[in-house]
Design a protein that fits this description.
This protein has 492 residues and is α+β, with helices and mostly antiparallel strands. It has 24 helices and nine strands. A hairpin with a 5-residue loop joins strand 8 and strand 9. This is Nuclease.
Length: 492
């Protein structure tokens, strides 16, 4: 340590943790600059000092990359570990050469991948972190299990016995209500139970087999888990290969889920259309105080009676955190201000804004003095303003439950114009829309026109048709899982 900082510490000018952190570096100039040039007191906190010293270095104790490569391999390749005087040399410190560490990780992953290619898989991908959304796009071929050898049967019995015993000891600890909490013992028992369960899982993986035909058309992923262990997933089918494998009769391909269909409306257009759907629902709800009360009560009942509806898993149209969604509608649809629903919403809002007191401290006394009619109508408008049905998907949505109950006619609030729809879809879609709304003959004339001319003509043809895109016609609502007793019976 810098003699100047030793003096500060000797005079109780810094804590033991602060001087230990500064000891991560033996650069006296850096030590003194971090301490004496700190503009704010918080910059001398141990965590801030540690970040300033290690900067882009990698914490050994919290890196799955280090665990995968091992410190011995990193140091053998010429890598340096920054350690302080108080660290356990085997489990603490900072990797100073991140580039070298990543190169060693890549080399080791390539080695694992080559082993998999030698098994016969057509492709192998490696990642340092598992991307669940990426993996979810792949299909999976089912594996078979080969017969056990006599030795493996004995091993399996021993693994099962060890797993059952570890689970029993852990459960006994949890059930012992009269015993004092022992964190160290609990951690030991949980670690043992997890290890025994993992051993059974690893044993089952060793017995998995795939046919040569499956391997020739599928592949494998290698990823690293949090502890630095290589996790291998075999039998994966790329999205673009699913259809051809089904046609060619590859074993197990008939069990693959169908590739996801391209949505009819993209994210931007879905947001635009569902914003108009929301505006229409809001003004209909604002006109109906009884329905507004029911909507809010429906949400609150599940919260208040949580013991009765403990298994209800539902989405809600109204955001009871009192988040006003009006601005979001304007952001989602740049043509919102011209819509009939928005004009009525704006008029209602201006009317109430003019009646309400200017100071919020006067609002509650004002409310208490109003008639039941005024309160109910203001209540309906406020609840309606929390409804948020804007979505990037044109699929099922909880606002449809309200639209069904209020019998909202979207054709009163939305018409297909160039601005609202036709400029945002392809020419082929425009032709298809006219064919749906009018006739194939009317649509045929548009096929010879350019996109802009086709959109302009279609706008004129569709004016009186009351045609609506699927997202505004569909009244599908998400599935609600709340029948606890039926689930128990199914599990049994």
């Amino acid at each position: 340590m810098s003699p100047r900082l030793i003096d500060v510490f000797r005079e109780d000018g810094m804590t033991l943790e602060q001087i230990r952190t500064l000891a991560l570096t033996d650069d006296h100039e850096l030590q003194e600059r971090l301490w004496f040039d700190a503009a704010q007191a918080w910059q001398r906190n141990p965590a801030q000092l540690r970040d300033a010293i290690t900067n882009s270095e990698i914490d050994v104790s919290d890196s799955n990359l280090v665990a995968f490569v091992t410190l011995d391999a990193y140091e053998a390749a010429g890598g340096h570990i920054r350690r302080d005087l108080f660290s356990d040399e085997q489990n603490a410190g900072y990797v100073t050469d991140a580039e070298l560490l990543h190169r060693l990780v890549a080399e080791k992953l390539v080695s694992v991948a080559q082993t998999l290619r030698n098994e016969g898989w057509s492709w192998v991908e490696t990642r340092v972190r598992r991307d669940f959304s990426e993996i979810a796009r792949f299909g999976r071929l089912p594996s078979a299990s080969r017969e056990y050898t006599k030795k493996e049967k004995t091993e399996l019995r021993a693994l099962k016995k060890a797993s059952e015993q570890a689970a029993a000891e852990l459960n006994a600890y949890y059930d012992a209500e009269d015993e004092a909490e022992d964190d160290a013992r609990r951690d030991t028992l949980e670690t043992a139970a997890d290890a025994a369960s993992q051993a059974l899982h690893d044993f089952a993986e060793r017995l998995e087999i795939w046919s040569d035909d499956q391997k020739a058309r599928a592949g494998a992923f290698v990823t690293l888990d949090h502890d630095g262990k290589a996790v291998i997933e075999r039998g994966l089918v790329k999205p673009e290969d699913r259809a051809s494998m089904n046609r060619e009769g590859v074993t197990g391909a008939d069990e693959l889920p169908a590739p996801p269909e391209k949505p009819l409306h993209g994210k931007d257009l879905s947001r635009r259309l569902t914003a108009h759907r929301t505006a229409a629902l809001q003004i209909e709800l604002a006109r109906n105080p009884v329905a507004a009360l029911a909507v809010l009560m429906h949400r609150l009942i599940q919260v208040v009676f949580d013991d009765r509806y403990v298994c209800a898993c539902d989405q809600h149209a109204a955001d009871v955190r009192a988040t006003c969604s009006l601005k979001r509608l304007l952001q989602a649809a740049d043509d919102m201000e011209a819509s009939a629903a928005w004009k009525e919403i704006s008029a209602e809002r201006e009317k109430w804004a003019a009646l309400l007191p200017k100071r919020f401290s006067d609002v509650l006394p004002w409310l208490m003095a109003q008639s039941e009619g005024v309160l109910s109508n203001l209540f309906a408008f406020c609840v309606a303003a929390t409804v948020n049905g804007v979505s990037e998907s044109d699929g099922a949505h909880p606002v449809n439950a309200l639209i069904n109950l209020l019998n909202v006619d979207m054709a009163q609030y939305w018409t297909p114009t160039r601005t609202s729809y036709l400029n945002h879809v392809s020419k082929a879609r425009i032709v298809d829309v006219v064919a749906q709304a009018l006739s194939p003959e009317a649509a045929a004339a548009l096929e010879k026109l350019k996109k802009d001319a086709a959109a302009e003509t279609a706008e004129r043809l569709l004016t009186e048709t009351r045609w609506l895109p699927e997202v505004l016609v569909s009244r599908e609502t998400p599935v609600v899982w709340d029948d606890y007793e039926d689930e128990e019976e199914e599990d049994a």
